[in-house]
């Protein structure tokens, strides 16, 4: 553990939280302005563009939480009560006749005059159909009060909420048939590298299959983005420039590879010549080099090409950026603390995101954490965060971010 105050070894590397803050600032100033109305069935995965205010009390009237009998407690003096009406869900009851009870079913409106519902298991029905109550009764029991969930005028879902099954169900319960949502972010995905070949084709000498393309495209779909698959970009300046020029109408150009300041960094050269380029060296592992810039005004993020680096920098930096561009406020994934099930004897100068899983309440890590090994993440349930300059012995707590949290 790094004792407080001990100087770190991070040096000139940019801390992850600084990079994230900068990206979020950029996203904030280029939020997607267009909005549209969609029927609920088409709104899954979209972002709410305006506050959803309740136009109803929910429930709209007091209703029964049980199958049983509604009565006024003062009427129950130990004598048998006759049943004066039967109320099913979906029916409008009569006011309760004094000195009687009402047969009532779950979800049915409680008649005016009744102040309690007793479940049928605690009621004894006589041969003449009058009812005896076997247990003490209390005011309000088994009645769901009007407006217990929400009342007219209450803010139920703020603008910027991501709409999933639960939010859509809630909107439906308020009677909304359509919701105002933000237009999808249009993201062009570019894979750079002369060595890349698409699956389905034969592999020549020195070639590898392009895994980042499908990884990013399918992830972006999950995040509610419109994906423009801009294919493989060879390591060549004129093609790079020409391909970037074709992508004028997107909200983000997202590339992988070619960011390691090597000789093959043609994306960087094109941005420097006709746009704007910052090369960030991040205190993150896997990952480290990140290209951030603009080409003819279109934002560009260039992720490192090794698949596990692509995954981690997309998950922790690009995902929040894309969500914020759609106006989402809560963009950071939930982290929880778990005991490490491994030792980490050598402190690093970058924040490590180890591909790990939970076993018997402890985080264990995949045996090979190389940034080229995507299989580590397929094995994993989450990312185990080990802070820079930190060593660990098993049993000490680390942060764990579930992959399920990051992938949606
Ligand atoms: P680069 O950043 O271009 O130097 O790439 C770093 C490493 O990631 C190299 O081993 C590349 O072959 C590999 N790589 C780059 N892009 C991809 C991709 N789309 N799919 C799989 N591996 C990639
Ligand atoms: Mg490359």
TrEMBL record:
For this protein, what reaction is catalysed? Answer: adenylyl-molybdopterin + molybdate = Mo-molybdopterin + AMP + H(+)
Q: In which pathway does it act?
A: Cofactor biosynthesis; molybdopterin biosynthesis
Q: What is the lineage of its organism?
A: Bacteria, Pseudomonadati, Pseudomonadota, Gammaproteobacteria, Pseudomonadales
**Which NCBIfam families did the record assign?**
Glp_gephyrin (NF045515), molyb_syn (TIGR00177)
Return the EC number. 2.10.1.1
Name of the protein in question: Molybdopterin molybdenumtransferase
Name all MoaB/Mog domain ranges.
Answer: 188-324
Q: Relate the protein's function as given in its record.
A: Catalyzes the insertion of molybdate into adenylated molybdopterin with the concomitant release of AMP.
* MF terms (GO), sorted A to Z: metal ion binding; molybdopterin molybdotransferase activity
Q: Does the keyword Magnesium apply?
A: yes
């Amino acid at each position: 553990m790094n004792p407080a105050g001990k100087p770190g070894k991070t040096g000139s590397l940019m801390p992850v939280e600084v990079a994230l803050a900068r990206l979020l600032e950029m996203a904030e100033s280029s939020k997607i302005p267009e909005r549209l109305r969609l029927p609920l069935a088409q709104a899954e995965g979209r972002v709410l563009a305006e506050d959803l205010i309740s136009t109803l009390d929910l429930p709209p009237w007091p209703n029964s939480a049980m199958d049983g009998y509604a009565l006024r407690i003062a009427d129950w003096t130990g004598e048998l009560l006759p049943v004066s009406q039967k109320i099913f869900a979906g029916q409008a009851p009569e006011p309760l006749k004094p000195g009687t009870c009402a047969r009532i079913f779950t979800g049915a409106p409680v008649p005016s005059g009744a102040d309690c519902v007793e479940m049928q298991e605690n009621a004894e029905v006589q041969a003449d159909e009058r009812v005896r109550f076997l247990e003490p009764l209390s005011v309000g029991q088994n009645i769901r009060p009007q407006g217990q969930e929400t009342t007219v005028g209450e803010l139920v879902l703020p603008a910027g909420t991501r709409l999933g099954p639960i939010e859509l169900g809630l909107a439906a319960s308020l009677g909304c048939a359509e919701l105002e949502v933000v237009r999808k972010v249009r993201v062009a995905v570019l894979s750079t590298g002369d060595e890349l070949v698409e699956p389905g084709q034969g592999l020549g000498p020195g070639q590898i299959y392009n895994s980042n393309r499908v990884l990013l495209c399918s992830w972006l779909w999950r995040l509610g983005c419109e994906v423009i698959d801009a294919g493989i970009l060879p390591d060549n300046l004129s093609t790079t420039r020409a391909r970037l020029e074709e992508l004028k109408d997107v909200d983000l150009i997202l590339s992988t590879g070619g960011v390691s300041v090597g000789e093959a960094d043609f994306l960087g050269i094109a941005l420097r010549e006709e746009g704007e380029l910052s090369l960030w060296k991040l205190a993150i592992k896997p990952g480290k080099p990140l290209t951030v810039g603009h080409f003819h005004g279109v934002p560009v993020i260039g992720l490192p090409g090794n698949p596990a680096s692509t995954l981690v920098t997309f998950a922790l930096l690009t995902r929040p950026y894309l969500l914020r561009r759609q106006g989402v406020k809560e963009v950071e994934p939930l982290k929880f603390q778990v005991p490490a099930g491994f030792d980490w004897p050598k402190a690093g100068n970058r924040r490590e995101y180890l591909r790990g899983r939970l076993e018997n309440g402890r985080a264990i890590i995949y045996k090979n954490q190389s940034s080229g090994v995507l299989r580590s993440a397929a094995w994993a349930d989450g990312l185990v965060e080990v802070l820079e300059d930190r060593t660990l012995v098993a049993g000490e707590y680390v942060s764990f971010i579930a992959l399920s949290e990051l992938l949606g």
